[in-house]
Design brief:
By secondary structure, this protein is of the alpha+beta class. The chain is built from eight helices and seven strands; from the N terminus they run H-H-H-E-E-E-E-H-H-E-E-H-E-H-H. It has helices at residues 12-20, 26-30, 37-67, 128-137, 139-147, 172-184, 201-204, 206-224, and strands at 72-75, 88-94, 105-111, 114-121, 153-158, 164-166, 190-197. Helix 3 (37-67) packs across helix 8, helix 4 packs antiparallel against helix 6 and helix 5 (139-147) crosses helix 6.
């Protein structure tokens, strides 16, 4: 693993892999506008899923270095869906090679409007309460950190217009209240992330997009760490 002051020098193989990733196109985003499960799913599998697999293959080692532990890629299968087509699909990076949903994990997801990199905590995750406890415990330091990173969005903490609150609006009391809610409400999950609109030039450039994902994960690490600190 590298230290904070070291920069990983990519190998020739890694450079070639990154160069082979084409980024996302307008047609990729339009897949999510296709009506109906039966019509949308084949297009997701044909157009979008291969790119998510590629992201997982290219970035797993680098993201492992960012978070300081070995990660494993998992591309969403949506196997339980039979009627409602997914509005988002993703590649997840988890500390377990077998699953990702029981754990606090990173996701790179694409929908009709955006691509977003998130720290994701399912409502039934084994690490949900650990995450909530650490979110409460670290609320003051996280407030200071989030003030400096307004691009971080709290998708489960909404403002008066029902929009995700930005990092600069996430004070310690708000974080503690949300942590308490995670304890009280069985169905409450947590999503903190950084989004890139479908019109953002970075999503269309393979190498720039991959770098943006790594940088987003680095920015989100203090939130990721909330799921990986012992009491």
């Amino acid at each position: 693993m590298t230290t904070e002051t070291e920069e990983t020098i990519p190998t020739l193989e890694e450079i070639a892999q990154a160069a082979s990733f084409p980024g996302f196109t307008e047609d990729d985003f339009r897949v999510f506008e296709i009506d109906g499960f039966a019509a949308r799913m084949p297009q997701l599998r044909e157009r979008v899923k291969p790119k998510l697999i590629q992201i997982g293959q290219i970035l797993t080692e680098r993201l492992s270095e960012v978070v300081g532990e070995t990660l494993y890629p998992h591309v969403a299968q949506h196997l339980r869906r039979t009627v409602n087509a997914p509005v988002e699909t993703w590649v997840a990076f988890s500390s377990s090679p077998r699953a990702y949903k029981p754990f606090v994990h990173l996701r790179c997801g694409i929908s009709a409007e955006k691509v977003r990199v998130t720290v994701f905590v399912e409502d039934y995750a084994d690490e949900k309460l650990l995450f909530a406890d650490n979110l409460r415990r670290e609320a003051d330091s996280l407030e200071r950190y989030l003030t400096l990173h307004p691009t971080i969005l709290a998708y489960e903490i909404r403002d008066a217009d029902n929009e995700p609150k930005r990092g600069s609006a996430l004070d310690a009391d708000t974080l503690r209240a949300f942590a308490d809610r995670m304890h009280r409400v069985k169905g409450q999950h947590a999503i903190f992330g950084i989004a890139f609109a479908n019109t953002h030039p970075v999503v269309q450039s393979g190498t720039e997009f991959l770098e943006a994902v790594v940088e987003a994960a680095r920015t989100l690490k203090p939130l990721y760490d909330c799921g990986h600190k012992a009491d």
